[in-house]
Design goal:
There is one protein chain. It is globular and about 60 Å long. With 272 residues, the protein is of the alpha/beta class. Strand 5, helix 5 and strand 6 form a beta-alpha-beta unit. The chain starts with 8 loop residues before the first strand and ends with a helix. It has nine helices and seven strands. A seven-stranded parallel beta sheet has the order 3-2-1-4-5-6-7, sandwiched between helices. The protein has a single domain, classed as Rossmann fold (3-Layer(aba) Sandwich), CATH 3.40.50.720.
Length: 272
């Protein structure tokens, strides 16, 4: 099949706003032919890239979006898995099994579906890059965000294993680890299923602390720049922190004894 363009082709999920939109725009500025996706496929606020409809929880939708890009371009050189959502602050027991399955279906199994759809094409063309948007909560946990942290831990393990498996085929896999960013993910978080009074005080305190953290958070462009760095690297790392806060947390997690790190987390979050 003839290629529509000689540009490298990037597919970015969850690109209607926030980190996904910033990443798609940054890649387009850098010369990629970019296809962004969202559930509705609605246009992003800027028209530097094309949007496609894609629901990462649907096998049929994932296959259709991948096939559409291949039909138009003949190749996919970069896959950025960004689509995801959060569950609002609350105790782990306040979320049902159904809610746990729903967040894993999007945040983790969505990445698995996209990988299964794209990797065969990358193997056939002899190379490619997969970049998964993780979080600092993928290497350290935060209380009252257990399910979200669990999905990000899963992304870390899957990505590292996948990178080892595909490296000899010319395909590299990296995880980007941002801290809190100025995006709408928290505004669009889903409430826990069953709020329990025993967690009300902690919920109020955590909501207040998270709002304070978001006020000084970095912009999603920091993540977009890190994605581009990973995509262009001749020998990419498995993990990249994105932003100063994430780098500081990674260093603390590496150097501090567990007891000090534990105490620091509780003090920072004002947990008694």
């Amino acid at each position: 099949m003839l290629k529509k363009t000689d540009k490298a082709v990037a597919l970015v999920t969850g690109a209607s706003s926030g980190i996904g939109e910033a990443t798609a725009m940054r890649l387009a500025e850098a010369g990629y032919q970019v296809y962004g996706t969202s559930r509705r496929g609605t246009a992003a606020s800027r028209s530097s890239f094309e949007m496609l409809p894609l629901d990462v929880t649907s096998d049929t939708s994932v296959k259709a979006a991948g096939a559409a890009v291949i039909q138009r371009e003949g190749h996919i050189d970069l896959l950025v898995n960004n689509a995801g959502f959060n569950v609002s602050v609350g105790g782990a027991e306040e979320s049902s099994i159904q809610q746990a399955q729903e967040i894993f279906d999007t945040n983790f199994f969505g990445i698995v579906r996209m990988t299964l759809a794209v990797v065969p094409h990358m193997r056939h063309q002899g190379g490619g890059r997969i970049i998964n948007i993780g979080s600092v909560l993928g290497f350290m946990a935060m209380p009252y965000m257990a399910l979200y942290a669990a999905t990000k831990h899963a992304i870390e393990g899957y990505s590292e294993s996948l990178d080892h498996e595909l490296r000899n085929m010319g395909i590299r896999v990296s995880v980007i680890e941002p801290a809190f960013m100025k995006t709408a993910i928290d505004a669009n978080s889903r409430d826990v299923d069953s709020k329990l009074g025993d967690y009300d005080d902690a919920r109020i305190a955590m909501d207040k602390r998270l709002k304070e953290m978001l006020e000084v958070a970095e912009n999603p462009g920091v993540v977009a720049d890190t994605v581009l760095k990973a995509a262009r690297a001749a020998s990419p790392h498995t993990r990249y922190t994105a932003g100063t806060a994430a780098a500081r947390l990674r260093l603390m997690h590496t150097l501090l004894p567990e007891c000090l790190l534990d105490a620091g987390i509780r003090k920072h979050l004002c947990i008694a």
